[in-house]
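User: We ran a pulldown and think these components assemble together. Before we commit to crystallization trials, I'd like a predicted model of the whole complex to look at. Sequences follow.
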Amino acid sequence: MYHLAGQLVRRVLQGLVVVLITTFLIFSILRIVPGDPVRLIVGGMAPDNLVEEIAEKMGLRDPIPVQFGRYLLEIAQGDLGNSYQRPKNGMMGQGGDFNANMDVEMAEVSDLIFDTLPYTLQLAGLALLISLIVSFPLGISAGLKPKGIMSKIAFFISSVFVSIPNFWLGIVLALFLTIKLGLLPSIGYQNFAYTILPAIVLAVETCPFIIRTISVSFAEISQEYFIKSGKVRGLTRNGVIYRHTLRNASIPLLNLLGIQLSTLLGGVIVVEYIFDYPGLGQLTIYAVLQRDFPLIQGIAMVTSALYVGLNIAVDLITYSIDPRLES
Amino acid sequence: MSKDLSISKKIFYDSWQNIFFKFSVFFFIFICLLAFFYPEISSIKAEKMNIKSKFLPPIFFEGFTWRHILGTDQLGRDMLMRCLVGLRYSLIIGFTSVFIMLLFGCLVGIISGFKSSWIDVIIMRITDAQLSIPMVILAISILGVSRPNLASIILVLALSGWPLYARVSRSMALIERDKEYIRGARILGASDFRIIFFLVIPIILPPIAFVSVLDIARMMIFEAILGFLGLGVQPPTPTFGNVIADSRKYIMNAWWIATMPGVFLVITLVTINYIGSTLEKSKNKFFGEGV
Amino acid sequence: MSSLLSVENLSLKDLSTGNDVLKNISFQLNEKEILGVVGESGSGKTLLSQAIVNWLPENLEISSGEINFLDKKINLLSESELEKEIRGKEIAYIGPNAINSLDPTYSVGHQLLEKAISIDRDNTSKNILKEKVISLLDDVLIPSPEKRFYEYPSQYSGGMMQRAMIVDALLSSPKLLVADNITMPLDVTIGAQIIKLIRILREKFNTTIIFSSSSLPVVREIAENLIILKNGSIEENNSVNKIITNPSSEYTKELINKTPKIWSENIVFQENENKTIISIRNISKSYKVRDKNKFNSFYDVKAVRDFSIDVYEGENLGIIGESGCGKSTLSRLISLLEKSDSGTISFNGEDLTDLNKNKIKNFRQSLQLILQDPYNSLPSRQTIGRIISEGLFIHSNLNKKEIKEKVLFTMEEVGLDKEEYNKLLVGKSGGFRQRVSIARALILEPKVIILDETLSSLDQNEQNKLLSLFKQIQQKRNLTYIFISHDLAMVRKSCNRIAVMYMGRTVELAKNDTLFNNCRHPYTRTLLCTIPTLDKNPYDKKLYLMDGEPPDPTEVGKGCSFNTRCPNPTHECKEGSIEMGLIEIAPGHLVDQCCVNCG
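Assistant: Here's a predicted model for the assembly, 1217 residues in total across the polymer chains.
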């Protein structure tokens, strides 16, 4: 099937452009906004000329396009760079020592990222699973009977969930389930159980959007002529719902999931921060707070590529369901 | 009868039929008035520290006083007042950022969708790229450097939200572009500018504006998150975020310092979200689900 | 012969208004009979059809009476009994919305098979059922049915989807087939083919049919007995011929009068001097559609190919064609909404081909276009006065007062009350809105007005009123009209010269009388033989109704695009090497070259 392959190639190329733009945006923002990483490396007491010298050596005083070009070259060779702040042996840099950091070998960005990524994927996966289990029944029954009681319940639950700040929920849940009731662990990670609480918080954040999308699309599609005429053609009611309504309704849902990824990512960052969960989100926060350029850039690229890749997958799946859709 | 009203009036009138909607609107107005005026007229001040009355629990819990309905924090400051002041900032930041992202995003989106040249392609790639950066990252990168102030916070939030409005208004513009009345206007000789400003924008903007109410609540949560991470309005001004962040230390003995602001915020947000969702439902009745 | 369906005193009530939408309907239907149901829109014919299959919307309910089908009272059956035995099985329904009747995300064949499996009670194997579907697709004359089985609804034309839905209905070998207004959305020639098909299928499958339509001539083609509905009650119930030759009710007499008289009346048109006002030479327009089978290539869809015509001042020129012939593209090209790929258009001698923006804007004052859809072609949020003034805001330097004066004057001219100046369009009828469109165009004082399917969405009454308005304005202002339409009856009444378009080209051009009485091109003959009229049609369907549909516009090569359906194609025609072009076979009568010799 030539055209699917053609589509794929086109989308991948477009995706690469997006990743490039994103990386460049982050790259530039970091270097434009005030906040010198070298300062953070050598400490506030270091003399200015030393700071300048080190910055020169690190190539941070060259014009931005030049720096970006160099960066791209390194990427092409598979090297995402080394962290500014984290040494290989895992201990955090002291940040006050003028000379030391230039000799200690710094952790490779790719290692740091791919070590923490699995934890985050596990968290996101569990959160998504919980959301879908809760949202599907609510959304479908709300969609099929827009004036029924399930619809009102779904509407109510959505409204409440979407009004809860995730960090506050995390604190309250930790207060109840960990401190007062001792049911689930909160801080850090020692086994899978540590994923549950953060996943619940994330799930609460995403449920409203999923419920809303499902109920709206089910309600809409049920009004389509081809769904209504299933009855007069002799198809069973359940047959129509499962073989036709569900199939058509899954398309807007998949599209939503594609777009929601970055919102999910934002939530992951906050949630990992609160629960001290050793995932990519936590890595990101510390990287940004410490102006660890290579690490930030690496993370930005990886997440951007994930986002693009996911959206391409979504597009291909929706295309295989409904062949009328083309970018 | 409702046929003769303009679109905005139609949507609002329809929502107004719902009794909970009416209630939410009045409640919301009440809260706003409370937040902006009560701390000014009350004798209790949000910043006033009174070590003698520190760690007082909220009403109906052991040891409460009626003077401090929601209790006091570690420095004896009244929780209710702190919540109200925090609410002021939340509301201001929420409304302003949404207003900016709505206007900017829609303007860019409509023009981009309507003209559809290479500019359109570039703008779409930019929104794509921006959509893939979570707001938090954007915020930390920009705000994490200097002392965040009201303007920069609003700007960061608006920056994180405009791509969605650009996207949505663009797809609506694409649909409108092929409609007959646009062709009718072109036949008369109307220029693109005329068509966009007199025909397309009045049709696209109102429904999107109604749905943007939901984003006000979303931005208020973001503002709280920023405050929590230390990137919001700085202490001693109390905001939901920094109050809750502070309170983590005392969570074992004085759990209300962490929970009460949250409850306050949640109630306000539920009200706003209910108003927004009801408006959205009404909009969908007349417009379909395009947004 | 036993009665298959017997409806007794059936009344249908609308629960939201409390009114009866069907009142006391009674009739009998015998086996193998075809009953026609004729009524204007709103008469209740669709509701009657839906009531018989028990597919009514929520707000409608049978308030009294019975429907007896084979001695079962089906209006009393429960939902599950209906689902198991009746709907889609013993009684089948096909409606006017065939294009949207199937799920766009599955192939057509898959869904027909799905229905076959769903109604099958003998556990027949899937393959046997699939064979049955394919053989039925063949029966309804869908070409290459084994291939088309796997295609999606979006790849089927309107006519083909209607045939597919007929297959869907026949899968259960139903005793009763309810055909509700099935030819309405189709081109007249395709509709005629469907009717011919239904007659054949009735013989083959022994089905009883109820055929409803708003067009009396159409129903006459197929039905033996006829019911005429007016406002929910039966006006007449008799055999078709008796009703037409000897109608008993006033309403029926009026209805018969309203059907277009094509050949029984002769319209005399004023002879004009032939001064050319618009000259179109060899314009073409192609659109690029992505080729799904290759990576980065595109098809050329030639919407308009090598089109030439002269428009004479003061005349009414009609351009006739069915869907897909390119007439909408043509109207956009002539009105300069789009630029043609090649060729020239001149207006009053001035070449319009490479004008800059300003000159085009000025040109708009001379040529205006009135669109088809009265509901969507006007901005819904502006007052009527504002809508009409728009042109003056754009082009003139008049002040507000002068503009208002002009607007009120024009409103009067088109028959709009002055009081409507400040009102909105909500709730106004289609005819009213078209008058607003006309006023909007007239205010610029154009010399030529193109009417692109302008009357197509209006009912017969409104059409007639507007046509006489057009005549009035034309005499006052010395206007030239170009009517673009698919409605031959309307064109017969109003145009003095008519051009027939097929696949982007003119195939025949003649004066009104000549075309209707003496045309040469086989396509024109097909169009004429299918005009719904009660007159005696000089073109016999048996001789002239073509099979097949217009070819896929992406697959048309060089040469004559008509060769796939032409009754007399020569070797060169099929090769594509024949020379195209119009030849004058008599003064003012032009026809494709190849037809000259065919006769």
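The mean pLDDT of chain B is 83. That may be worth checking against your pulldown data before setting up trials.

User: Thanks, that helps.
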